[in-house]
Amino acid sequence: xxxxxxxxxxxxxxxxxxxxxxxxxxxxxxxxxxxxxxxxxxxxxxxxxxxxxxxxxxxxxxxxxxxxxxxxxxxxxxxxxxxxxxxxxxxxxxxxxxxxxxxxxxxxxxxxx
Amino acid sequence: xxxxxxxxxxxxxxxxxxxxxxxxxxxxxxxxxxxxxxxxxxxxxxxxxxxxxxxxxxxxxxxxxxxxxxxxxxxxxxxxxxxxxxxxxxxxxxxxxxxxxxxxxxxxxxxx
Lengths: 113, 112
Hints:
The complex is a heterodimer of chains A (113) and B (112).
Chain A: E1 4-5, E2 10-14, E3 19-25, E4 32-38, E5 45-51, E6 56-59, E7 62-67, E8 72-77, E9 86-94, E10 97-103, E11 107-112
Parallel strand pairs in A: 2-11
Antiparallel strand pairs in A: 1-3, 3-8, 4-5, 4-9, 6-7, 7-8, 9-10, 9-11
Chain B: E1 5-7, E2 10-13, E3 19-24, E4 31-37, E5 44-50, E6 53-57, E7 64-68, E8 74-78, E9 87-94, E10 102-103, E11 107-111
Parallel strand pairs in B: 2-11
Antiparallel strand pairs in B: 1-3, 3-8, 4-5, 4-9, 5-6, 7-8, 9-10, 9-11
């Protein structure tokens, strides 16, 4: 049973515009969320995190929004750059089971120059 | 600061064989987790090691086993390899269980 879902397998955005990647989860006990970027033939690279006590976290061009009532989070990239083209994964953890992260299946972002 | 390193990067094994994958954690990290990523899927949790003991396990059979050493490095062992074990195996370390995990480059395993 997939507890973290990324329903958009792919997304294309023009350079300079905003990229919005979405993630939904089913477990209301999840309280810590992460986003990763993955290039082909490399391991995932940590981008940004958010705790359930917040609804927004920013780091440079990356902002993550959390809507706990909707069990939804999103990653905004502004402005998008060609180097942002990669697969993006969201992940979540349950503090009662603090040893694993549950990952979505990823969204492939293509930023068109 | 040294990141997570994994070896080997690629390997090919025959069905029924055994494989050992190795991981050195990032400096300052005492917790190591292993994930399996099949093509087109997100990483799936195999297990975590903390203080040299298994600290949680995902839905993987006992032929997947591991070790953590006093320097926090870790091994993943898979016995009786099956074709479906072909995947990218990712090691991740963290400052403690439940904290942000940082991945290595991964080990690509192909079982033929």
